[in-house]
Write a structure and sequence with these properties.
The complex is a heterotrimer. By secondary structure, chain B is an all-alpha fold. Chain B is built from 17 helices and two strands. Chain C has four domains: 233 residues, Rossmann fold; 187 residues, P-loop containing nucleotide triphosphate hydrolases (Rossmann fold, 3-Layer(aba) Sandwich); 55 residues, no CATH class; 73 residues, no CATH class. The chains are: A mainly alpha, B mainly alpha, C alpha/beta.
């Protein structure tokens, strides 16, 4: 495989981490909730999955069971975090920013503590192989396109379909745009908000597991998860709240982010170590530019959901 | 018939917004929340910490560690107040913007840029006299902070760009910019050493204690900001803009100008914090020097209802929990980030309890005595309710009018 | 006619909001295949009644029958199940969605979301009733009438047989109104029952089969449209005059204070709200503004206050400065010289000073010594000035806005801090001076008997009447030259209302030009000297309040003077009645 293709595939695989995170966040934000707890949720998704693998990773279970249970545990623990957020912001109508940030503090803290208890040889060595099915035996970067990579592509397509082609999606978008109108139309606003934030959190959480077990497959990987959580939130803006665009965005972010690791390998590009942080900065700069341009152009379709960040209380004016 | 249907109608739990709750009751609710959160933290600790798990009797040690963490030695106490001062200072910096309902969550980056400015001056001007270097460092730090806060503010004021997302992104741009500058200064990629270790140029002088000057400076700043927000015309304008753009328009306040001015102040204070950290504490910089305090400060400020004096208490609480958590990790030999878990749990409770202060929960009763909890058909669109609320309080000759009024308000 | 089937029957329905009886034993019978108008003034309880039929409110007592069966309607969904649909006055649409998406939003059935099917069904409905609609168009790109079409189709899509339309014509042009009426007639022939809420008599006559009149929450009568006329309906709608005991003094030396000419402005959708509005408000008198809610009263006052951008027109303020010394307090040298070009100044003894010949220094000396007096009223154009600029010009203009807590006051601030809203800039210090505002707050609390535990209480916690006292008190405290009050007694009890009337009268007696926007015609007739009547942004008359009947005002309020450029007619109309 030529070097450039290797790098490209690696970037795509890396981008899958953000695809999980930002697809989950898009679903959440569509219900009008800005969840800044995504970094914490992704951490916990990773931790939950790894702890499960820690238990079953060396057992005699068939490979697909191990993968399934890992994914389920990861989804469940992230969804649980999402549930905390939902309860606080939907039922108790707390400030979304503050709740989200607290969730991130809590989630990263809990993950660090839990991961310190897990044994790398148990949750990584054998499960890694199963997770990297079908390309596990390859030595180039194609090995990283495993089960979860295809899962996230499926999730994105499904999310796109649900949001754009079904009544559920229509109702969800209505809730995020104008909960009061949705309420009068007979939509159960609270239920939609709960489901969206919880499922969204669960999907985001899978990104944590994917990054630790599949993409990075190292015992240190969990320490950089938080940063990828924030990048996922950035990606939501980049994708202008559209699931399919997260794929393109993730690949771009992945290239920019991992390019910096590869760039020294490319013989004909003259670089120094210094370019690395500049390249890593680019995803954020691009996001800012997109944010600015979309606010200047002020095109209705490209704006955040109208009620984003506001809690809904039926009896408010 | 009528009665029956009404009974079916009224939901089991009916929420109403409280107009007012006495401060003592509100404090009581928060107290209960904190106690409850400590109990939950204890339970979580029992599960998570192996040494406690094996020996639940040591749970009292667990609580004792909180106090030990901050006040067991004189050094610890100094450190407690130093940490408090820094966190408080960042919280002060974000507060003016928050009062204006400008959700600046970019303090992390603004402080880091301030530090960078200060360090850059200290590095390059090490031949100048110390006092001059300190002044230049201060100026550079404040300017960097202003730039970092000013950019989102300009776009907010003129294009209404979402400031929460913008300032959030600016944090990471700052982080990587610092990484870049570090590589410029130390091309090998090693950590940057202490700046001017021998000459101590660009170091704040030590008075009484290393941390003393910083603590005093932040205390003074707290006072100044309290006065600024509550007793000056600027502070008054900030409150009006934060409360209602319409009122600001009505009395002729230039909202754009206030947004820019306040964000410049916010950024300048972040820069100042960066200066204090660079010149008084670290004398060096890494891309993670601020260590998430920019985010914690948001919670400190919010918990204190954006009141600088109350923030002393809330930042104290956070630092206390943080240092207690570290102590627990040390005593019980926990790897990971226990303090974050404890802070998280306690904040969840404090954030959550605000609900009980702001809302009133009315359970279904046989006879509706409370005026505010009268039976209510289920799907009530917003205006109609306002209309009803108003009629509730006033003698209202027209029942249709207010709907009009609210709608117009929404339009604006 | 005799064979008509009853589609909807409302029997003795009552609804109370707090202490206000919004509906008292109201009856309503609607036949199948008729257009039934519910007629009444603002606050007569029309919307409340309709909301009860549509499941938004639940009646305190009374019964609702649909097709002869008693039904309990608890929610809009129940209403839909009974084939009742309502088009609210303020549309409930998601801006970002297409028409089709809005139409199916929230429908619970097993059908799959199939855009093609929905679109074809929408088009079918539109075709049947003669609507024109693009189902794929986004709502935010739509005009008001298109949005209304979406709302109506939304109801029809749910197979409603009884359609309630709340003031559907308020936002439509005459052509659009005619189109709507045609559609309604088709629906009627299709066997649907249409309940139309309106207060426009010409429309009632044009489209309806029968009319039910409500007044102050009570049922007055139901008549066949063919058996009645506009005058009779007006009389039933406004009722007999009630004598109010407001002490109305004669105007004090009325001289023009605010002269507005040809004011035009548009709302954010680009629809005209004010059309060539011209009027004069005199000092020492109260000018009342009467009109159906939303006819442009708010925009008119906001335009004068500098809050509403105008597309054309002038607002001239006559500053009564005659024989007062010129000061540098609000005029600098340049402005004085500018003024001297067109106006004259004089000394105390009356001799005219020609400033154009003088050196700057001499002028400053004269001003500083207070020797330079205005010869005539200072004339200023307030058009395109911000509130702050108006204030800096030295124009003492007070405005009690309709939206008390959203605009006039800051709910979370205490009474003292609210007192400062207008005046906090005074003085060069960067600090606030709370002494004077506090004194003022205490004074107002005492004088106007504001029920509050103290001046440090956030105004949000005061009751509506007390909030209003605080606001009016503040606005009067600056001894304004112009005082504008929008619905200042709305929500107030009788005593507080009289207190406000007396305050306004006192202002009038001190020579202030008072502009009072009200909704109770009895009060307007009893309090004001002249009344400007406005309908859909057009002045339909300026009349002498002492020599006019309620019916005449009511007639002007619903009189349609439309079609775009008709400045002349408006002015003639205004002028004519003025002379009368």
């Amino acid at each position: 495989m030529p070097v450039w293709l290797n790098i490209l595939i690696d970037s795509i695989a890396f981008g899958a981490t953000f695809m999980f995170g930002s697809t989950g966040e898009i679903i959440t934000e569509k219900s009008g909730h800005l969840n800044l707890g995504i970094p914490g949720i992704m951490c916990m998704g990773g931790a939950g999955g790894c702890l499960m693998l820690n238990l079953i990773g060396t057992s005699k279970m068939p490979g697909f069971m191990i993968v399934m249970l890992g994914i389920i545990a990861s989804f469940a623990s992230a969804a649980l975090m999402g549930l905390i957020y939902s309860f606080l912001t939907i039922t108790l109508r707390c400030n979304q920013n503050v709740t989200g940030l607290t969730l991130t503090t809590f989630g990263t803290g809990l993950m660090m503590t839990l991961m310190a208890k897990a044994t790398q040889t148990k949750y990584l060595n054998i499960p890694k192989k199963y997770f990297r099915f079908p390309f596990a035996d390859r030595t180039d970067s194609l090995q990283k396109l495993g089960v979860m990579f295809f899962l996230v592509i499926a999730i994105i397509v499904l999310a796109w379909f649900v949001l754009n082609k079904t009544k559920v999606g229509l109702n969800l978008k209505a809730v995020g745009e104008n909960p009061s109108t949705a309420d009068t139309a007979g939509i159960n606003v609270i239920r939609y908000k709960y489901l969206a934030t919880t499922i969204g959190a669960g999907i985001s959480g899978l990104g944590g597991l994917y990054y630790i077990v599949d993409y990075s497959a190292s015992g240190e990987a969990y320490k950089s998860l938080e940063a990828f959580g924030w990048l996922s939130i950035a990606l939501v803006i980049f994708a202008l709240w559209r699931p399919l665009r997260t794929i393109a965005g993730s690949v771009l972010f992945g290239i920019l982010f991992s390019f910096s690791s590869y760039i020294t390998l490319i013989p004909f590009i003259e670089t120094t170590l210094k370019t690395k942080p500049i390249l890593q900065m680019l995803p954020y700069v691009v996001t800012i530019i997109i944010l600015i341009v979309s606010s200047i152009k002020n095109k209705k379709e490209n704006q955040p959901p109208s009620s984003l960040g506001l809690s809904y209380f039926r009896e408010d004016r | 018939m009528k009665l029956n249907s009404e009974k079916n109608h009224e939901p089991l739990v009916h929420l109403t917004r409280r107009a007012y709750m006495s401060p003592w009751k509100a404090i009581g609710i928060r107290g209960v929340a904190i106690v409850a959160s400590l109990i939950v933290s204890g339970i979580v600790a029992l599960i998570l910490i192996e040494k406690l798990n094996a020996n639940p009797g040591r749970i009292f040690d667990f609580y004792k560690c909180f106090i030990d963490g901050s006040f067991s030695t004189e050094g610890m106490t100094w450190k407690f107040f130093k940490n408090l001062a820094i966190l408080l200072c960042i919280s002060l910096a974000v507060t003016p913007a928050f009062r204006m309902k400008f959700w600046n969550i970019g303090a992390e980056g603004q402080v880091l840029m301030g530090m960078l400015g200060a360090i850059a001056v200290a590095k390059t001007c090490s031949s100048l006299p110390n006092w001059l270097v300190l002044i230049l460092m201060l100026i550079a730090a404040v300017l960097c902070g202003i730039v970092w806060a000013g950019i989102p503010a300009i776009f907010k004021a003129f294009f209404n760009t979402n400031e929460t997302l913008f300032t959030l992104m600016m944090n990471y741009v700052a982080t990587y910019f610092v990484s870049y500058m570090l590589l410029v200064w130390v091309p090998s990629g090693n950590a940057m050493g202490i700046v001017n270790q021998e000459t101590k140029i660009g170091w704040l002088p030590t008075v009484i204690h290393n941390y003393f000057l910083i603590i005093v400076a932040v205390l003074i700043l707290t006072g100044i900001l309290f006065v600024y927000l509550n007793y000056t015309k600027h502070g008054y304008e900030i409150s009006v803009v934060g409360e209602s753009n319409n009122t600001a328009r009505y009395i002729g306040i230039n909202v754009k100008k206030v947004i820019l001015r306040t964000m410049i102040l916010s950024g300048a204070l972040c820069g100042l914090t960066g200066f204090l950290m660079a010149a008084g504490l670290d004398h060096s910089i890494t891309s993670t020097s601020v260590n998430g305090q920019g985010f914690t400060a948001i919670m400190v400020s919010w918990l204190a209802y954006f009141n600088p004096l109350t923030m002393i208490a809330t930042s104290g609480l956070i630092v206390f929990l943080d240092m207690g958590g570290s102590k627990i990790s040390e005593v019980f030999d926990v790897r990971g980030a226990l303090p974050n878990i404890i802070i998280g749990i306690i904040l969840f409770f404090i954030i959550g309890c605000e609900f009980f202060i702001r809302y009133k929960i009315n359970f279904r009763k046989k006879e509706v005595v409370d005026k505010s909890s009268k039976p209510e058909p289920v799907p009530v669109p917003q205006e109609e309710v306002k209309e009803e609320n108003q009629t509730d309080e006033d003698e209202m000759p027209s029942a249709e009018q207010p709907a009009e009024e609210t709608e117009q308000k929404e339009d604006n | 006619m005799e064979e008509k089937q009853i589609a909807l029957e409302v029997q003795k329905v009552s609804k109370k909001f707090g202490s206000i009886q919004a509906n008292k034993a109201v009856d309503l019978t609607v036949y199948k295949g008729e257009i039934h108008v519910v007629l009444g003034e603002n606050g007569s309880g029309k919307t409340t009644l309709m909301n009860m039929i549509a499941g938004i409110y639940f009646p305190d007592s009374g019964k609702i029958f649909v097709n002869g069966e008693e039904k309990i309607i608890r929610s809009p969904k129940d209403a839909f199940d009974n084939k009742i649909g309502m088009v609210h006055q303020h549309y409930k649409l998601i801006e970002l969605f297409s028409a089709a998406e809005n139409i199916v939003l929230g429908i619970k059935n097993k059908e799959k979301f199939d855009e093609k099917k929905i679109v074809s069904r929408v088009e079918e409905i539109a075709h049947r009733y003669g609507f024109s609609i693009d189902p794929k168009k986004k709502v935010y790109e739509m005009s008001v009438s298109e949005k209304q079409t979406v709302e109506i189709i939304k109801v029809l899509y749910r197979d409603a047989d009884i359609l309630i339309l709340d003031e559907p014509t308020a936002v439509l042009t005459p052509q659009e109104t005619e189109k709507l009426f045609n559609v309604l007639r088709v629906m009627k022939n299709d066997g649907k029952s249409i309940i139309l809420i309106t207060h426009k008599l010409n429309e009632v006559m044009a489209v309806s089969d029968r009319v039910t009149i409500l007044r102050k929450g009570r049922y007055i009568d139901t008549v066949e449209t063919s058996q009645t006329n506009e005058n009779e309906l007006t009389e039933m709608m406004v009722g007999k005059k009630i004598e109010l005991n407001i002490n109305r003094s004669e105007p004090v030396n009325p001289r023009p204070r605010i002269v507005c000419e040809n004011l035009c402005c548009k709302d954010k959708d680009g629809l005209p709200i004010l059309k060539n509005v011209s009027f004069t408000a005199n000092g020492g008198e109260i000018l009342g503004i009467a009109g159906i809610a939303g006819s442009g009263q708010r925009e008119l006052l906001e335009a004068v206050a500098g809050l509403q951008p105008l597309t054309s027109g002038t607002i001239i303020f006559h500053n009564p400065k005659e024989n007062k010394p010129v000061t540098f307090f609000h005029k600098d040298l340049k402005q004085i010289k500018e003024l001297a070009k067109e106006h004259k100044f004089h000394y105390e003894d009356g001799t005219v000073v020609d400033l154009t010949e003088m050196h700057d220094k001499e002028i400053s000396n004269l001003v500083n010594e207070g020797k330079l007096l205005f010869y005539e009223d200072e004339i200023m154009n307030l058009r395109d000035k911000t509130p702050l600029q108006i204030r800096e010009l030295g124009v003492k203009l007070s405005f009690v806005p309709e939206d008390r807590l959203g605009m006039g006051l800051v709910g979370n601030m205490n009474i003292t801090d609210n007192m400062m809203l207008r005046s906090y800039r005074k003085g060069g210090s960067i600090f606030l001076n709370r002494h004077k505002p506090q004194d003022l707050a205490e004074h107002i609390v005492e004088e106007l008997e504001v029920a509050t535990p103290g001046v440090t209480v956030p105004v949000r916690r005061l009751s509506g009447g007390n909030v209003q006292k605080v606001l009016v008190g503040r606005e009067i405290s600056s001894s304004p030259k112009v005082l504008m009050a929008a619905y200042p007694v709305r929500g107030l009890d009788i005593n507080s209302s009289y207190l406000i009337y007396n305050l306004l009268n006192k202002q009038k007696e001190t020579g202030t030009a008072v502009i009072y926007v009200g909704e109770d015609l009895d009060v307007l007739l009893g309090l004001c000297d002249r009344i400007l009547v406005i309908n859909s942004g057009v002045v339909t008359g300026i009349v002498d309040a002492r020599n006019i009947t309620k019916q005449e005002v009511g007639y002007l309020m619903t009189k349609v003077l439309d079609s775009a450029p008709q400045t002349e007619t408006t002015q003639e109309e205004g002028g004519d009645v003025n002379e009368a």
